[in-house]
Amino acid sequence: MTAPRPGASDADERYRRKDRDVARRAKKRRRALEAMTPEQRQAAEAWQRAHQPGDFQKRAAARQRRKDDADGRALLDEIDRRREPPLSPEAAEIAAAIAALRAERDQLLAQAAASAEDHDFNNYTDGVFG
Would you say which domain of life the source belongs to (predicted)? Predict the structure, then answer.
C-alpha cells in the first residue's frame, strides 16, 4: 500500500481513507472466497496462479523455463522408454566374461608399464651387438 505524500495538509485523512478502503476490499474478497464452492475456489486459485503480478519479461522467462522443463522431462522419459531391455542370462554371462578379460588386460598393461619404468633403456652400453 502506497502511503499519501506526508507533507500534504490532508495526509492523515487520506491515509485513514486508504486504510479503510484496503480493509473493505479485503473483507469483500474474504466474503467472496467463503461463498465459493470448492470447485469455484479451485478455479479462482488457478486463475490467480496463472495471472501472477510482476514484470512481463520475468513472467515470460518463467513461462519459457516451465516449457523447457516440461520438454526436458518428456525427452528424458522418451530416452527411458527406448533403453534396452535387461540382458538374457547368456548375454549377462558373456558381458561378465568381457569385463573380466578387460580387467586382466588392464592389469597386464599396468605391469608392463611398471617394468618399463624399472629399466633405463638409455643407459645400455653394450649396444645391439653387445
Answer: Bacteria
**Quick one: 99 and 77 in the same domain?**
no
- Tell me the percentage of the chain whose pLDDT exceeds 90: 44
Q: Which residue range forms the structural domain that includes residue 39?
A: 1-51
Residue-wise over 61-80: b if at least 16 C-beta within 10 A, else e? eeeeeeeeeeeeeeeeeeee
**Whole-angstrom distance, CA of residue 128 vs CA of residue 46:** 87
114 located within any domain: yes
Cell of 59: 513472467
> Which grid cell sits at 25?
476490499
Q: What angle do CA 31, 37, 40 make, to 5 degrees?
A: 95
Say how far apart CA 92 and CA 99 lie, in whole Å.
Answer: 10
Record the pTM: 0.36
Q: Count how many domains the chain has.
A: 3
